[in-house]
Design brief:
Shape: elongated
Order of helices and strands: HHHHEEHHEEHEEHHEEHEE
Radius of gyration: 27 Å
CATH class of the largest domain: Alpha Beta
Strand content: 5-15%
CATH topology of the largest domain: Alpha-Beta Plaits
Largest sheet: 2 strands, antiparallel
Strand order of the largest sheet: 1-5
Oligomer: single chain
Low-confidence stretches: 267-284
Number of helices: 10
Structural class: alpha+beta
Mean pLDDT: 87
């Protein structure tokens, strides 16, 4: 047998040994997959928004199958229809699905506030936030560079001509993707059934708020004193509603001097007639 023949034999033997080892390893180290997981995964919409609290639809499907304590009604884009399908696969109760919408807690439009600088850096809210807290006079408000718009899988949130984001509830699924990327945390996901909400996120004191935004919460406590249910309180200079007590009587709205307590999500779809964005005369700043 020549040198070439010997080499061929050696390589063949090594190949056979490796094949046997891989075959044994595939049996010994195999991880069994519950056949219900792919069936549940097929029921989910595939948005991979993470609104359920799990890493995408695959993660949520596995969690529902492997842990019976995992609720079946956490898929906001799929809603009750998806919960019902998953329940039929797993033989469990679907649970009630509460319809929710994202809502921007800021009324700082161009006619209510102003820019403190002409930001000329990377066109994202996250980047602008690093530049002295953002380009707006109020560092708690909507920055308006569209991180939420780009994150939304349903094209349900847009930057309006007046400079702030607004949600179209006809398209919103309540997945919370927009809320997760907002650096100022001005977006919250609220049940559709709520009647009123505080549309401001400022933690500044009243005098400072008034100088920066005409629509900001002053923390005056008028709403707290007048609420017949004791459902609203001022915390960190900002009114906060306890929805477990709120009956939607509208008293807080009527007494709020800043008019920053507005209708709940179903009273606030995108309004195309909102005023056009005005040019800023603030000094330029570059990142």
């Amino acid at each position: 047998m020549g040198v070439i023949g010997t080499a061929v034999v050696v390589v063949t033997v090594i190949g056979v040994i490796c094949a046997v080892m891989l075959s044994v390893a595939s049996k010994v180290m195999a991880v069994e997959v519950d056949e219900r997981i792919p069936k549940v995964r097929e029921c989910l919409p595939g948005a991979n928004c993470g609104g359920c609290g799990f890493p995408g639809c695959d993660g949520y499907a596995a969690a529902m199958v492997e842990d019976e304590s995992t609720p079946l009604n956490l898929c906001a884009p799929g809603g009750a229809a998806v919960a019902s399908k998953v329940a039929s696969v797993l033989g469990r109760e679907a649970g009630e699905v509460v319809k929710s919408y994202a809502r921007v807690n800021c009324l700082g439009s161009c006619d209510k506030t102003s820019k403190k600088m002409d930001y000329r850096g990377i066109e994202t809210c996250a980047a602008a936030k690093l530049m002295f807290g953002g380009n707006g006079s109020c560092t708690f408000g909507c920055i308006g560079l569209g991180d939420c718009t780009r994150a939304c899988p349903s094209d349900a949130i847009h930057i309006m001509p007046n400079g702030i984001a607004r949600v179209d509830i006809n398209s919103c699924t309540g997945c919370s993707a927009c809320a997760k990327v907002c650096p100022n945390h001005v977006i919250s996901v609220l049940p559709a059934a709520i009647k009123v909400q505080v549309s401001c996120s400022s933690k500044d004191k009243g005098a400072a708020v008034r100088k920066k935004c005409q629509a900001g919460c002053l923390g005056c406590g008028m709403c707290e004193r007048k609420c017949p249910q004791g459902a609203i309180h001022v915390e960190n200079n900002l009114a906060v509603i306890d929805y477990s007590k709120c009956v939607g009587c509208g008293t807080c709205q009527s007494v709020c001097p800043a008019k920053c307590i507005v209708d709940g999500p179903e009273g606030g779809p995108v309004r195309p007639e909102e005023p056009a964005k005005e040019a800023s005369s603030a000094p330029a700043a570059t990142a």
